[in-house]
Amino acid sequence: MLGVANSCNALLQELQQIWIDIGETEAEKDRMLIELEIECLEVYRRKVDEAANAKARLHQSVAAKESELATLMAALGDLTIHSPINLEKKASTLKGQLMIVTPLVEDLKSKKQERIKQFAGIKAQIEKINAEISGYSQTADTICSLKFEEQDLSSRKLCEYQSHLRSLQKEKSERIHKVLAYVNDVHSLCSVLVLDFGKTVSAVDPSLHDTTLERATNISDTTLKGLQNAILKLKTERKVRFQKLKDVVTSLSELWNIMDTSRDEKRQFSRITFMVTLSEDDIVEPGALSPDIIQQLSEEVERLNKLKAGRMKELVIKRRAELEEICFKTHIKPDPSTAVDISTAMIDSGLVDPSELLANIEAQISEVSNEALSRKEIMDRIDRWLSACEEENWLENYNMDPKRYSGGRSVHISLKRAERARITVKKIPAIVDNLICKTVTWEDDKKKLFLYDGARLVTILEEYKLSRLQKEEEKKRAKDQKKIRELLLAEKESKSSPRRSSSFRSSTNGTTTPSLRRSSIGNPTPNLTTPRSYSGRHNGYFKELTKLSPGPLNFVSLPKEDTISFSSLYSSSEPGSPLQS
User: Fold this and answer.
1) Spatial separation of the C-alpha atoms in residues 176 and 165, rounded to whole Å
2) Residue 185 lies in a domain
3) Per the domain annotation, does 394 fall within a domain?
4) Which string of b and e fits 80-89 if b means at least 16 CB within 10 Å?
5) Four-residue CA torsion sign, 423, 426, 428, 433
6) What is the pLDDT of residues 72-99, one digit of tens each?
7) Which of 119, 493, 503, 544 is the most core-located residue (most Cβ within 10 A)?
8) Does residue 351 lie within any of the structural domains?
9) What are 24-63's pLDDT values in tens digits?
10) Three-state DSSP class for residue 496
11) Tell me, what DSSP letter sits at residue 279?
């Protein structure tokens, strides 16, 4: 500045000298100096204005940069950069402030562009996944859609988008797995039912089967719903076919049982017959429920039905024999309407369909079998009672045997059995009473009579009790008459002479008593009535019942009292008899 001032003074002195040389007046000199000052002032003013304008522009630039910096900071959420107030403290000049702010703005701009790219990438993925889930093509421009979001490009917003993207990716993964699981179910069901898998899934969405398409597998709600409906239809079809197969196999099994089909003939259908024992969900074998298999079984059933028609009479006779065998074992009278002779006559005359007659016999077998189950407890008790009666009969025969104590080594075996028989015989009244109680309870429960070979069991038991009571009374009277006869005999012997007494004893011991014992062996104690007396199938225990005259049932027949019956009762009441009181 000093050099410039010296130059100006030198020029001014040179100008004044020129003016002197020219001869300018003082007034002219003052005027020209004033003009020179005015021109200098204008130059300074112009320079000042230019400097002021430059300052204003710099100030405006700094303000704009600071505003842009603040906007970028707000958009990016970056609060670590120094604020404009701090910048003014560090730099006093505008150019200095501008030099500090400009790099910051440029750096934030680059960060913004990177952030925009991040947002654009995430937004594009979000839009793509949303389009896949919704089932529509992606038409929105990701960048344009992000313009509404540029005021907030903070890390927090970016984390929100990333979190939203992860949740969508998780949902997409779950949907893909669900679609794959549904497709696998459709494939499995189509394999079991022998249906076209490609046609089935293509009806839902072509991308599920056509691998030549460039677009990804559709995971929309529409696709999932379509697959669910397809699976439901296939399961319904599987259920219908499985039930049809079970019905056919049931018919086939019934025909096998009726016709006694060999194991070799059954073996070719063993896989199918085993399959019907499984549940529907366990059937996964390809072609297991194909129409061909069901048709094959139906044709086999039809073939066996035709074969059965030719053997129906034989089957009816066979099943009737089985019915009679069951009735024989359970002592139930079979229905006479399906007897062999009647059934054969009806079949030969064509009055009845053999299938209906066979079905009727099957129903009777089922009914008798069910009744046999309900009668089992009572039948077991009847067997126990009959066994006790047999022991009683054996004991009576044993007591009437005069050689029962002279049997050699087998004596002790017979004695032990006799002891056990006496214990069993003592239990007979309790067995009978309990059996009556059980039978009455059964009749009350079933609302019908308990019949044993056509006769009511309670009646048999009551009459058995009566006959047993009459037998006991007969034994008691026999004992009393025996004592009277012994007293009379002793009295006669005491009045007779010694020779006559000796002769009488000899005559009595040698003739009378043996004849009575022989009579007692030939005429045993009257028999008791038991259920076996009512059955023509049991012989040898109570045969005399079959000789009774017709009319009301009378299961007790006692002979008149005479010397032989007294002798018989006397023999049966010897020591060791189970009926002695």
Assistant:
1) 16
2) yes
3) yes
4) ebeeeeebee
5) negative
6) 888 777 665 555 445 444 557 888 888 8
7) 119
8) no
9) 888 888 898 899 889 989 999 999 999 999 989 988 988 8
10) coil
11) -
